[in-house]
Each structure stands twice: as C-alpha cells, then as structure tokens.
Specification:
mainly alpha, 7 helices, 2 strands
C-alpha cells in the first residue's frame, strides 16, 4: 500500500468536524477551538461509555443518533442509507458502524430483542 493510500485509509477513521457541526454545532465549535479536525472513530467506538459523562462527547453521540433520525425498528437501515458526506466509516465497515451506533442510541444491537 502506498503512503497516499495509507493516509487515505487512516483519514476514513475520522469523523470530520464538518459532520460534527451538522449533528452538534456547539461540539464542533469546541473542537475547532482546540484545533481538532475531527474525532477518531475507533477511539469513539472504544470509549463511548466513558464519554457519556463528557458533555461534548454525549452531545456528539446524541447528535449522530438524531442525524440518522429514525426510531427503532428501522434505525439500522436508515443509518446504512444515510449520507455522512466525506466521512465513510469503512475502516470498521459501514455495517459495523451502524450496528454500533444502533447500540449507542438504543442500548441494544440491531435485531436484538
């Protein structure tokens, strides 16, 4: 893999501030003030439970849930059909990202009773 391809793949692991601004303008403003260009998806996925106590993290997660905007059942499908702009969660697969987001938003995995 070339250096350019490797950088492109690593970039897909970031939720850019431009998307965060759509789901939580105050969060994006806070991140920009700190000089951040985005949030690393793998970090967010590993630390979702911990950041719920952080106002910015909680608002970002809630914003992502609201951005997909569908109640369950139907959230996973809506997430798969959602255009996230330049953010393509392909590092973990869009299916994996949407399943994880479903779990974050509803406290259970898709199709879990």
């Amino acid at each position: 893999m070339s250096d350019v391809d490797e950088k492109r793949e690593r970039a897909k692991d970031y939720i850019p501030v431009s998307l965060i601004e759509k789901v939580c303008p105050a969060c994006a403003k806070h991140l920009r003030a700190k000089g951040w260009k985005g949030i690393k998806l793998s970090w967010l996925m590993q630390n979702a439970d911990k950041i719920r106590s952080n106002t910015i993290g909680e608002a970002t997660l809630k914003g992502l849930c609201d951005y997909v905007g569908e109640e369950d059942p139907g959230f996973f499908t809506a997430c798969m059909e959602t255009d996230f702009g330049s953010f393509e969660p392909s590092l973990h697969s869009k299916e994996g990202f949407c399943a994880w987001l479903h779990h974050v938003c509803f406290g259970r995995w898709p199709a879990e009773d």
